[in-house]
Amino acid sequence: MAASRLCDALNNNGVKAKMLVSHKQTDDITVVQLPRTPLLRWHFLWERFVIFLRLHMKRERLFEIDIANSGTDITKTREFQEADLIHLHWVNQGMLSTSGIRKILKSGKPVVWTMHDIWPATSICHLTLGCRRFTSGCNHCKFLPGGGGRNDLSAVVWRRKQRMLQGQSLCFVACSHWLETEAKASALLRGQAVTSIPNPIDTRIFCPGDRQQARRAEGLPEQDRLLLFICQRVSNPYKGMSFLIEACQLLAQQHPQLASTITVVVLGSHAEEVTNDIPVKSISLGYVSDERRLASIYRAADLFVLPSLSENLPNTIMEAMACGVPSLAFRVGGIPEEIDHKKNGYVAKYRDAADLAEGIRWTLCDADWQQLSENAVRKVCHNFSQASVSIRYSELYQQMIAQKHFKL
């Protein structure tokens, strides 16, 4: 979604961009489907099979790691051959392999790689969760059974990635200053250019609106105070639903009158599995992909809550803020770059459900909600709008192309 938004932003601001994808789900002519061959599915299945074997045939972490051992050779496509510059985004689960990326780098075209998580700077993981092995060389990976070993799968893929980058130069773009700092600490990316540019958001879609009208459109309680929780898979433990449940329990014990006025609205797959565990009124809206409906749901909320344990620069917080909704999250990753504490939202102490509960109480009872809302919208328009982000990428593209021409 972030890559698609950037493609739109670039095309809306003078850069001709096309997006090459493994599975096209839109009629947009700027989005191009990879050639449909049996190999397309095979790349995905083969990678999962190899990981499944390395996990001792357990499914628990099957989609938490990627090894890029198989993928499509995009250098043969017309889009690649016509391009002045190649911009990589999230390339996993059978789209590109390390050898395929090596071929892209050796083509002579300038390459920019936006990091939507830490995977390009590590071996196999998307979340380091406190592990610092990527600063010297991945091995003994916590995601592998028994912690792996010195020559486990993470060490094998690390060496493969080293060969992929050997003698080649490109520019890695992190979506947050926090991730930029992490990437610069990676032994894998030593000597490579690393910078940070945030994801863009379309403020024509995600913008403030009538709260009561939005509630009526979704059949949500018009008098309650609505807390909104959104993620792709609600049961994902790293998204922190358990902390929101604990915070609601604390509110019910310490501020029962406030708790009686709160309804938690949950969006995402498996949402119905957790609503019964929330100790205040709750509603499941399931998975919502339509952006205009999503924006309407944001507008219905009093507070957006995302107690994630690991985040880069969450699109959901940006979307909520663009709609004028204050946000509450833990102090982790790039979140403090979005939420200015007690200015446009509340940044809670990491893994602290009590402070999460205090953030809910403060926002709903003590804060000047209208001022928080206005500050949130102003922050997004200034830092994350299509125009501001596309200008920064355009300047980077021009710089990369000029460097390639100078070397030639």
Structural class by SSE content: alpha/beta
Q: Give the ordered list of helices and strands.
A: HEEHHEHEHEHEHEHHEEHEHEHEHHH
Low-confidence stretches: none
Spatial arrangement of strands, main beta sheet: 9-8-7-10-11-12
Q: Helical content, roughly?
A: 25-40%
Determine the strand fraction and express it as a percent band: 5-15%
Could you state the oligomeric state of the chains shown? single chain
Total separate domains: 2
Mean pLDDT metric: 94
Please give the count of helices. 15
CATH class of the largest domain: Alpha Beta
**Using DSSP, what is the number of strands?**
12
Question: Topology of this protein?
Answer:
Elements: H1 2-12, E1 19-21, E2 31-33, H2 38-54, H3 78-82, E3 86-88, H4 98-106, E4 111-115, H5 153-165, E5 171-174, H6 177-184, E6 193-196, H7 211-218, E7 225-233, H8 241-254, H9 256-259, E8 262-269, E9 281-286, H10 291-300, E10 303-306, H11 315-322, E11 327-330, H12 335-338, E12 345-348, H13 353-366, H14 369-383, H15 386-407
Helix pairs in contact: 1-15, 4-5, 7-10, 8-13
Structure description:
The chain has 408 residues and is an alpha/beta fold. The protein folds into two domains: 221 residues, Rossmann fold (3-Layer(aba) Sandwich); 173 residues, Rossmann fold, CATH 3.40.50. Helices cover 40% and strands 14% of the residues. Strands 9-8-7-10-11-12 form a six-stranded parallel beta sheet, with helices on both faces. Strands 3-4-5-6 form a four-stranded parallel beta sheet. It is globular, with a radius of gyration of 22 Å.
